């Protein structure tokens, strides 16, 4: 990455911006190849969902990723460069594309390292399988350098700092004047042109989500429950015969929003659903990914796959978590505590959680990390469900390619099972649909190699008036088909609550 940290002057000046673009054009001419021009502006924080709603097109390529309780968010739209990847080396190919782009980058404005999300940011999504069975939406992995990116996060003093970055692929024929105008116009829209709406609270650190009380469980008739229960029964036979220790079986619920739920199709607009999800699940990752063809994959995932901090004090660190074992929330505080205490003592749920935690620890150790792991899981309470949860951290001696960490961890036993290869084969046998992006990694990598990826669960795929909702349950010894179906209902409830 070619960066000029001292170039922190105000690039609102048309003349200065013009010179920066011309400098990158000259670099492209000298190298006889395209270059990436990026410029970052330090701006006042705004509601990321407002940015997503006002500045991104429903049928465009876009990305929204927010952790409200941590005060971190990123919104990206349009594309400066894109690479699709498939097959068993998809993560390695994606990392190679990231490295290739970073080597051709010329950054201006706020210096890289001064704020988060300066310079080109890489938006990454992958399907669950190396080679998906179908060719549906999001069946290929994609790495995108967005043209526009808004991001904010707290600084070390706890103040929310926001950055707007524009990126363009530059070649010797690029005309600087129209590009200057386009960048300054988009900056003005972001700083002064967003519609006034409900005041944004900027996240709610430490918030404990109360239980949902207003949404009924998913109707059993919609679930085709007998099919799912038969798959669970077959998986339990595999476990009894010691072919598996755990397998996660998922169900896809297809709905026409107007016909099945009596909703106006406009209710399914991504910004509307995301607002509902963010309000109901502030301690989850609210996310949306638009494929450029009018289809959006969105959800509120409680599960981090990996966070990589390359530049923090003390050297590079990996952060991940084991999230497995679940129970419903109670309708009163007392009932909620009783259910939670029972979950913390359940041999079956503790066994399921340990399978995930042990796998993750082994992966981090294979990556050369010194691992910190709590001795016992704690409760992670969401609006309609609570999980056993253990944060896991790894200290690294040297920087690590972000997608090497993703490749090592995906899929964890929390979304596939163990042994991993046998569980993936069982999923292909027993699930009647291709998972596509469900339970797969999606996230971002910044220009310094810092990264964060969530697991795409508690999610839905929207396509006009049609929606496919996903939910899964971990099957281990002691599971019953009826109980696992009830867990699926509970998880799908989160998405139905957002729809209504």
């Amino acid at each position: 990455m070619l960066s000029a940290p001292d170039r922190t002057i105000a690039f609102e000046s048309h003349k200065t911006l013009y010179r920066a673009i011309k400098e990158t054009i000259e670099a492209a001419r000298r190298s006889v190849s395209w270059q990436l021009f990026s410029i970052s502006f330090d701006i006042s924080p705004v509601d990321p969902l407002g940015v997503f709603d006002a500045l991104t097109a429903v049928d465009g390529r876009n990305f929204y990723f927010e952790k409200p309780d941590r005060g971190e968010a990123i919104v990206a739209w349009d594309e400066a460069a894109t690479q699709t990847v498939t097959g068993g080396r998809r993560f390695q190919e994606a990392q190679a594309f990231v490295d290739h782009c970073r080597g051709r980058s010329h950054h201006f404005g706020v210096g890289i390292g001064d704020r988060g999300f300066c310079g080109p940011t890489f938006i990454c999504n992958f399907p669950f399988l190396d080679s998906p069975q179908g060719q549906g939406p999001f069946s290929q992995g994609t790495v995108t350098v967005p043209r526009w990116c808004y991001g904010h996060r707290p600084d070390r003093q706890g103040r929310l700092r926001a950055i707007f970055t524009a990126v363009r692929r530059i070649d010797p024929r690029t005309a600087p004047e129209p590009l200057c105008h386009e960048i300054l116009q988009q900056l003005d829209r972001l700083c002064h042109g967003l519609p006034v709406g409900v005041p944004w609270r900027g996240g709610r650190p430490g918030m404990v989500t109360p239980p949902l009380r207003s949404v009924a469980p998913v109707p059993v008739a919609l679930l085709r429950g007998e099919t799912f229960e038969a798959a669970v029964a077959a998986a339990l036979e595999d476990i009894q015969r010691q072919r598996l220790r755990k397998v996660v079986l998922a169900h896809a619920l297809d709905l026409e929003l107007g016909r099945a739920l009596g909703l106006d199709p406009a209710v399914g607009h991504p910004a509307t659903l995301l607002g509902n999800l963010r309000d109901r699940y502030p301690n989850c990752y609210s996310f949306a990914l638009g494929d450029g063809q009018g289809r959006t994959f969105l959800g509120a995932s409680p599960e981090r796959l990996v966070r990589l901090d390359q530049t923090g004090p003390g050297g590079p660190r990996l952060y991940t978590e084991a999230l497995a074992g679940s129970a419903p929330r109670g309708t009163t505080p007392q009932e909620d505590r009783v259910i939670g205490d029972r979950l913390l003592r359940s041999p079956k749920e503790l066994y399921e959680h340990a399978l995930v935690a042990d796998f993750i620890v082994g992966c981090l150790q294979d990556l050369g990390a010194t691992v910190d792991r709590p001795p016992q899981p704690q409760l992670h309470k969401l609006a309609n469900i609570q999980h056993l949860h253990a944060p896991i951290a790894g200290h690294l001696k040297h920087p690590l390619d972000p997608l090497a960490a993703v490749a090592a961890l995906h899929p964890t036993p929390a979304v596939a099972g163990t042994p991993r290869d046998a569980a993936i084969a069982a999923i292909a046998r027993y699930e009647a649909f291709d998972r596509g992006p469900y339970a797969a990694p999606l996230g971002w990598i910044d220009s310094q190699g810092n990264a964060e990826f969530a697991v795409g669960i508690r999610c839905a795929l929207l396509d006009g008036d049609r929606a496919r909702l996903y939910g899964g349950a971990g099957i281990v010894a002691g599971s019953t088909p009826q109980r696992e179906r009830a867990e699926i209902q509970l998880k799908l409830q989160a998405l139905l609550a957002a729809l209504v």
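Confidence is low (pLDDT under 50) at residues 1-10, 201-209. The chain has two domains: 2-192, 220-499.
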